[in-house]
Design a protein that fits this description.
- Chain A is an alpha/beta fold and about 425 residues long.
- Helix content of chain A is about 20%, strand content about 40%.
- Chain B has about 250 residues and is α/β, with parallel strands linked by helices.
- Helices cover about 40% and strands about 30% of the residues of chain B.
- The chains are: A alpha/beta (about 425), B alpha/beta (about 250).
- At the A-B interface, α7 and α8 of A face α2, β7 and α3 of B.
Chain lengths: ~425, ~250
């Protein structure tokens, strides 16, 4: 709390927050489940993931509580379970890794209020074959503030794939703060995907930090299909040589959604590679913001970095702010960055119409093709196929007309 | 098939077509010649319904139906195809997806179910071979990274896929070397039937050596100044357009 009071909440005057009004997001009188009221339902029974190839190992977080029906995995190779449980079983590990992220006041707010979270620890040399899935559900009959946390520890040579699905099971206005800390030891490999498919009254302030050591490999993907206000602040730091990261972001926004991705990739070691691609398709009066900084410090020679942000405003009132940044203090590097903002190409639409393709179908083809290359970067095949299908449904039918084609095909609770 | 009556059209408020009359019957190949800016491309864009062009007077019917009342995609479904002077690149949309969407849109208009995957690929292979288009190109994005010759060949490939009744070739010969021109023209000739017709815009006699037109029109300043047989094209090639400026337009 002291840290929070000392720095205060970020304002739009802070460079990293200039596109998103954090104070306004925190303004409503939210309820907090500090008295730890138990859940009134079992998400395992009512919110089953039916995506082919997914849903085998699901851990539910409802509001700010880890569902009791989750099956804790703790076999010496892999731990997946509540943070509270992990802290009791492995106090030394917990102390060594928890809350080591150099965060701002939003992280401090989360740290102060957080009650529990999910820990995933993959022991040295272990390869987890099954996808580990975390489903975060927003709930509440009154506006709620949920504070949740993830801690991911990949020990030397460990391999795992994690998918986080954020869904909404409430019609009430709500806000979540989320802090994700990930540590990739030497030679470890992590695929981490986060899919946001909530609703326009669901708001999320996310802070994600990954620390990568020598020879580690991170594939990070964030896909935003539906959300109210979403702010993701992602920091990836290379602390050892020959590490690499692929960062892929896809945002489909509509209505009055506000989606802000703030990215910092810090190259602190030589011979590391970062490949960043973010694409936004903005409809309605939605706003998108992207600020991505690649920082190459003096010791990070032979850095290879590529950063691209491409945006499509498909309606006249959609707005995009983009700020790709490159800061280089080493002299032997290969880096480039760029961004574009455009509209649907009328010439292409007429060319298609001349071939008999209706304007609606033409718009669909152009938007789908725009999103295509981001989705191609997703290695996890069942997820990629599902997302391709969902993105097409989304462009074809819009929000709210997808039938049961939400990510889980789940039911309202 | 096509009846154009007294068409006036403008672009950004500037009148380009000043009363065009043209009748095209099944089985005929018409050639439109004329200096740059005479309105040849405007006429073809008006026929296909390019929204950048405004028709201010006149009528166009196609098989007795009011063409100007139809959106561009319906004109395509009714059987009108335009081969672009500068084909448009559509990054990210594969030729196969593009053509499948086009073929299925036409089938839907005709009340037919979507084409099956196997049938579609068979059709692509057959038509591709007809115009000598490389298999690799149908898997790439529409016209992206295609050479000038490949783009024009791709236009004729699309024409083969859609089997139009009326094909408009807007300077399909420009930018092609002799070999590429021959391949494109031969592809076009293979698609000709007694039920189809074509309007071919060109500056060059050499295109006409291949496609053997029935009727040649010369446009000047938004009007058709002279209509004749193939010999008219030879006279234009050797004498230019100036001698026509002294004459009066034919009605």
């Amino acid at each position: 709390m002291d840290a929070l009071i000392a720095s205060g909440l970020p304002t739009k005057k802070d460079e990293r927050y200039k596109y998103t009004d954090i104070a306004a997001a925190l303004e409503p009188d939210f309820g907090l489940n500090l008295s730890r009221l138990p859940l009134s339902f079992d998400p395992r029974q009512t919110y089953r993931c039916r995506v082919p190839g997914l849903g085998s190992r699901v851990h539910y977080v409802v509001g700010d509580s880890v569902a009791e029906s989750n099956v804790i995995v703790d076999d010496g190779r892999l731990f997946v379970g509540p943070m509270v449980e992990f802290a009791q079983r492995y106090p030394d590990l917990f102390r060594a890794y928890y809350n080591k992220v150099e965060g701002d006041s939003l992280t401090a707010l989360n740290t102060m209020l957080v009650q529990d979270g999910i820990v995933i620890r993959v022991a040295k040399g272990c390869k987890v074959d099954d996808l580990l899935q975390i489903v975060n559900l927003s709930v509440g009959n009154v506006p709620m503030l949920a504070n949740r946390r993830q801690l991911i520890i990949m020990e030397q040579g460990a391999e795992a794939s994690i998918l986080c699905c954020n869904h909404s099971a409430t019609g009430c206005n709500n806000l979540a703060t989320e802090v994700v800390e990930g540590y990739l030891a030497n030679g470890s490999h992590l695929q981490y995907y986060s899919v946001e498919e909530t609703s326009d009254n669901c708001n999320l302030l996310n802070t994600t930090a990954f620390m990568q050591h020598e020879g580690s490999n991170l594939e990070y993907g964030s896909i935003t299909l539906n959300s109210g206000l979403l702010r993701r602040s992602v920091k990836i730091e290379f602390d050892g040589s020959n590490a690499q990261t692929t960062v892929s972001g896809l945002v489909l926004a509509h209505g009055t959604s506000h989606i802000d991705n703030n990215l910092l990739v810090a190259h602190n070691a030589p011979l590391c590679r970062s490949d960043i691609l973010y694409k936004y398709v903005l409809d309605g009066s939605s706003t998108g913001a992207f600020a991505g900084k690649v920082l190459v410090n003096a010791q990070a020679q032979k850095t290879d970095s590529q950063e691209t942000n491409a945006n499509l405003c498909v309606s006249p009132s959609a707005r995009m702010f983009t700020q790709p940044m490159l800061e280089i203090y080493a002299d032997d590097v290969k880096c480039n960055h760029g961004s574009t903002v455009g509209q649907l190409d009328d010439t292409a639409l007429f060319y298609m119409a001349q071939r008999g393709i209706t304007p609606e179908e033409g718009r669909l083809l152009l938007q789908q093709s725009f999103a295509w290359d981001v989705l191609q970067r997703i290695d996890l095949l069942p997820l990629r196929q599902r997302l391709i299908h969902m993105v097409e449904e989304r462009f074809r039918r819009g929000i709210g007309a997808c039938g049961d084609c939400v990510m889980c095909g789940g039911n309202e609770i | 098939m096509l009846e154009i009556r007294n068409i006036h059209a403008s672009v950004e408020g500037k009148e380009i077509l000043k009363g065009i009359n043209l009748t095209v019957k099944a089985g005929e190949v018409h050639v439109l010649m004329g200096p740059n800016g005479s309105g040849k491309s405007t006429l073809s864009n008006v026929i296909v319904g390019n929204p950048q062009y405004t028709v201010t007077a006149g009528t166009i019917t196609f098989n007795g139906r009011d063409l100007l009342a139809m959106p561009p995609e319906d004109r395509s479904h009714e059987g009108i195809f335009m081969s672009y002077q500068q084909p448009v690149e559509i990054p990210g949309v594969s030729m196969n997806n593009f053509m499948r969407a086009a073929v299925n849109a036409k089938r839907k208009y005709q009340g037919l179910p979507p084409i099956g995957g196997g049938d579609f690929l068979k059709m692509v292979k057959e038509k591709r071979e007809l115009v000598g288009l490389d298999a690799d190109l149908t898997r790439r994005s529409v016209n992206e990274g295609f050479s000038g010759g490949e783009k024009k060949r791709n236009e004729i490939f699309q024409m083969a896929m859609l089997e139009p009744q009326l094909a408009i070739l807007d300077e399909t010969d420009s930018g092609l070397d002799v070999d590429a021109l021959r391949i494109v023209a031969e592809g076009f000739n293979r698609l000709r039937t007694p039920q189809t017709a074509a309007i071919c815009i060109t500056h060059y006699q050499r295109m006409l050596d291949y496609i053997k037109p029935d009727i040649v029109h010369v446009m000047l300043d938004g009007r058709i100044m002279r209509t004749g047989g193939p010999d008219l094209a030879y006279r234009i090639e050797s004498e230019g357009f100036d001698w026509l400026k002294e004459t009066t337009p034919n009605s």
